[in-house]
Amino acid sequence: MDSHQGQEPQAPIMCTAGCGFFGNAACENFCSKCYRDRRPAPPAAAAPAPAPATPSKSLPIPIPVSPAANPAPSVEGTSPAKTKHKCFSCNKNVGLLGFKCRCDQEFCPKHRHAADHQCPFDYKSFDRERLEKANPVVAASKVQQI
C-alpha cells in the first residue's frame, strides 16, 4: 500500500557551499540561505524607476487654506491635541484611564467619586429633572357626577 515501493530512501545531501546545513535538490543542492545569496538579483522592472534627468519646470500649485484648517492657539497656551491626563485633585498622572466626572474634570481612581473631590455638580436636581421628563404626570379625566 506504500506509494514509494520502488524508491529507496535517500541520504541527506550537505549544502554544496559547505556551510554545514543540508541542501535541497530543488535549490541545486544548496541550503535555502546559500541559494538565496547566490541567485541573481531581481529584474530591473521590479526596482523603482529613477527620477527623470531633467527637472520639470512647473510652478507649485497654491492650496487654498480654510480658516478652520488652522485653529488659532487657545488662550491657555495648550493645544487641544496635547492635553495632560492628570487628576484634578492630586495632580497624579492618570494616562488614558482617567475617570471623567460630570463637572468636566478628570480624576484618578482614588478621587473618581463625587464625594472624594467635592464635586460642584448637583446630582440630585439633575436626576429629579430627568425623572420628570421621563415620567409625565398621569391624571385621570374628571367624571361628571349625575
Features:
little secondary structure, single chain, 3% strand, 146 residues, 2 strands, two-stranded antiparallel sheet
- Basic shape: elongated
Fraction in beta strands: under 5%
Strand order of the largest sheet: 1-2
Low-confidence stretches: none
The biggest beta sheet is recorded as: 2 strands, antiparallel
Overall pLDDT: 75
The percentage helix is: 10-25%
Alpha carbon gyration radius:
38 Å
Order of helices and strands: HEEH
Tally of helical segments: 2
Q: How far from one another are the termini?
A: 105 Å
Describe this structure in words.
This protein is largely without helices or strands. Helix content is 13%, strand content 3%. The chain has two helices and two strands. Strands 1-2 form a two-stranded antiparallel ribbon.
